[in-house]
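Q: What changes when glutathione is included in the input?
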Amino acid sequence: MTQITLYGAPYSVYVRIARLVLEEIGVTYELVPVDIFTQDSLPDDYETRHPFGKIPASEHDGFRLFETDAIACYAVAAFGGERLIPRDARALARMTQIMRVVDNYAYPALVWGVLVEEVKRSRAGQLSAEEIARARRALGVLEDLAEVPFLVGAELSLADLWLAPVLAYLRLAPSGPALLDSSPKLTAWQATMAARPSVIATRFPKEEEAP
Ligand SMILES: N[C@@H](CCC(=O)N[C@@H](CS)C(=O)NCC(=O)O)C(=O)O
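A: The predicted holo structure follows.
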């Protein structure tokens, strides 16, 4: 029996983050398809699940949530995922800092600013100096903050699960590999993460298509 229901699409960065958290904790879940970019296919009541019209949303035993952070914190506390949250004050702060850097700077600059522009809007090789600089700045900040083998040190944390889908998409963009080349710690970290069963189980459809 599944323990939690997640609403969303397998191509979504934030749905994948929620799935990674559930996979790492070992929570069974059902992914109910909600393709947010095809408004016609949205369930009639989806606005009651996510009033801002985004994915993911979740439900557990009648308890509904939206916002990936809230879904992750609930899964950690309700299903025994405490190992994903450092106890040490500095590691906890660093984890939170990296998650917010992903939300506020890396996701917009790398997924929307590089992958979507180059692939969906057919602008490969045409990104402006400003767009490239924004991507480099986000990567540079994360490279400086990153520890090894995981982003906040010896143990996997939510920070790793927040960044993994973003860099997986960046690697699929024409400029992605070259951008990542100047971030050796992140490149090594990405290879470590790519071998995790949770990451393999949640691969984006586009990664499956990649040569
Ligand atoms: N703050 C939200 C962000 C979720 C989000 O941006 N989801 C994207 C897909 S990865 C989405 O639903 N986009 C649709 C839109 O912006 O219209 C969260 O943490 O869950």
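Observations recorded in class: The chain has a mean pLDDT of 96.
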